[in-house]
Amino acid sequence: MSKPPAKPPTSSFAAFLNALSWSRLRKDPDFDAGLNSSSAWTEALTTPEGGDEDPLLDAEQGRPARALFTFEGKPEFRELTAVQAGDRLDVLREEVGDGWSLVRHFGSDTKPEVGLLPQSYYTFTIDLAQAPELEVPLSHERARSGKEASSSSITPRGSPTRQLEGPTTPLVPQTTGEWFPSFRRSLLGGKQLNRFSSFVTSGAEEFVLQGADDKEPPSTPGHDRQSSVSSVIDDGGLSEADKHFVEAGPAWKPKVPPFRILVHSPSKRTSMLSGAYTMYSITSLFSLDVAEDDDSPPPSPMRITVYRRFSHFVVLHTALTRRLPGIALPPLPEKQYAGRFNDDFVEARRGDLERYIGRVVRHPVARYAEVLTFFLGCESEIEWRKQYPQYLSYPPAGPSFYAHVFHPAFNVDSDEAIESVDRFDAHTRAVGQGVQGLRNIYGKVRQANIEMSQAQRLMSYSLLSLITSKPLAQASMAGIPEEEEDINPKQKGHMNEDGAWCWREGCSECLKLTKAMQKTSETLQNVADIYDDHARRTQLATHEALKSVAHPSATYAGVLETHKSTLVRYHEATINGQENEEVAARCETVLNTTMAEFETYHDQKVEDFTALTTEYLDGEIALYEQILTRLKAARRTFKPPVYDTLAQDARQPSMYERELEHPRLAAMPLSQPCPHVFDSAPMRPVSVAIQEGVGILLGSPARASVFGKFWS
C-alpha cells in the first residue's frame, strides 16, 4: 500500500482552539475564556444527557466509503482512533474545513464511532462502482466488521481491479440534506466556529443559545414572546443604568436628556510616578428646563468641570466596551508617544477627545452608563483614584447585556430585518467611501486658500512696487522683469517730494491717487491674512470633524455581524417541525438591539452632516464677509469726502515697503488632521518626520509631511 499522505497537524477546530489557548495561557496563566481544548472543547462534544453522540448523527445516513490508510487520531480533538486500512466507513459530512470530514467508523466495537478523518485517508465505494471492471455489493451489514470485508469486497483507488462476488447493482449515494446546523449542534453545541466573531465576543451567541448567565448578578429577567415594555416581569433588582428599553421602530428609548461636553484648557503637568502628561478640562453643560410662557432670558446651563488625562479616557472606553458590548462605540484616538507636547498636536488631541466623548454622550444608552456619569461627575481626585480601578475590574457583561434589554413583543419582522441589514451595510460602505473622497478634496480646497492668500499678497506687493518704484525681490519668479539699476526713485522722477506717484512737485491729484492705491495694497495684505487664517484654523476644524463620520462601516461592523448571525439562528429556530420558541424570542431581543443601533446611526448621521454642512457654509460666509468689509473700506477711499482728505499731508511709507526686498511668498506647510484610527495610512515613522523637520530648517526644497509641524 502506498504511503499515507501527511495528515493535517490537527483538526481545523482543534488546532485553532489549541493554538489560541496555548498562546493565551503563556501570556496569562489564568486565562481560559472557554477555549481550553482540554475542557471546553471536550464538553461541547457530549450531549446534555451525558451521552457520547448526538442522536441525529446516529440516525443519519452517510455515503459508504473505505479507509485507505491506518489512522490514529487524538480523541480529545474528536478525531477517529484505531482506523485500519480497509475499514468500512460512512461519510456524514465530506467537507468540514481544512481537509477534514465527519465520518462514522464501523470498527471491531459493537457501536460505531463518529469523528473526524482526513479526506485523503478514505475513498467512496460509489467511485469504485463506476469503474467498468469493478462491481461492488449492494448491501453492507452495519454490524459486520469492516476488517472482514476489507480483504474481499473493496479495492483501494489505483489498485488492480478484479471481479467481486455478489450483486452487480451499483451503490446510489444518499442525500443527507443541509449539514452544517446538525454538525454544529453535535460537535460545537450549536456555537459557530469563529470564536473572534463579534457575535461571539459580545455574548450574543451565548445569550441566544443558553440565555443569561446565572452567575451574573443581579438575576436577569427572562425573555419570551409575550413580554413587552409595558408588561415586563420582575426585574430582579436591577439598577436603572442596567436596564435598556427599545421602543417600536425599533429604536432606543432615551432615559436621560442630551447634554453638551467641552474638552478645553489643556495644561502640561508632571508626576513623580508617570512623568509629564497633559491634563484636559472636561465641562458638562446641562440645559435647565424653562416654562413655555416664561419670557425671561434663558438661564445659563449648569456646569460641571472635571480634569482628566488621556489614560483616564482609556479607562472609560475600556469599561464602556465591556459593559455595553451590543452598541457601536466610537473608536478612541490612538496613543501618541512622540511630539505629544507640541502645541499643534495637543490642540488636535483636544479636538479628537471632545469629538469622542461628544459621540458617546449622544448615544441614548451610553449616555446614562454608570462609568460615564462617574467619569464626568467625580470632582474629587482622591475619590477618582479610589473608584476607577473597580470599573476596570468588572467582567464583560456578555449575554447579561442582552438579558437587560426589554422591547415590545413581535417587534421585528424577519424579512424587514434581512432587507434592512443589507441596505444598511451597502449604505455605510458608500458613505465611508464618499467621506474619504470629501476629505481628500477638502484638503485641496484648504491648500487652494493658501495659494489664494499668496496670490493676494503678491498682488499687494505688486501694487506697492508700482507706486513706489521699488523693485519686488524675486519678481522674475512671478513673471515680472527685474530692474538691474538701483537708483533713487525721486532722482529718476518716479516720485515727488510728497511721496506721490508723479514727476511733478505739489501734485495733489497724484498724491490722493497714491494714498488710495497704497490703502488698497494694505487691504490686500489683510485679505491674504484672512485666507491664510481661514485655511489653517477654521477649515482645519471642519477637516478634523470629517473624521468622525469617515468610517461608519468599520464602526458598525460588529453590529452588522451580530445582526446577520442572529438572523441565521432565528431561521434555524423557526423552521417548520424544529421550532424553538425560547431561542427565537432571544433572537428577537438581539435583533431589536442591532436594529436600534441602525436607527441611532440614522439619527446621528442627519445631525452630523447637517452640522458639518452648516459649519462649512457659516465659515465661508464669515470669510467672505470679512473680505467684503475690508474691500468696501478700501473702495471708499476713492470716493469723496475720504478721497478729498488724502491730499492734506504727505504720504507716509507703508509698513509693507520693507518687505519688498524679502516678500512673504513662501507659506509654511499646511497642518493636516491627525489620522483616524481606521485610516489605512498610518502615521509616518518618527525618524522620517524628524528628517523632514530638519529639512525644513535647512531649506530643503522637499515638501514636509502633513505632520511636520507636530514633530518639529
From TrEMBL:
Compositionally biased tracts (Basic and acidic residues): 138-147, 212-226
Keyword presence, Transmembrane helix: no
Stretches assigned to the PX domain: 258-382
GO terms under biological process: endocytosis; endosomal transport; plasma membrane tubulation
UniProt region (Disordered), positions on chain: 137-177, 211-234
Domain SH3, chain residue ranges per copy: 60-127
One CC-aspect GO term: cytoplasmic vesicle
Pfam families referenced in this protein's UniProt entry, alphabetically: BAR_3_WASP_bdg (PF10456), PX (PF00787)
Alphabetized UniProt keyword annotations: SH3 domain
Keyword Cytoplasm applies: no
UniProt superkingdom: Eukaryota
GO molecular function, one term: phosphatidylinositol binding
Protein name: PX domain-containing protein
Native source species: Phlebiopsis gigantea (strain 11061_1 CR5-6) (White-rot fungus)
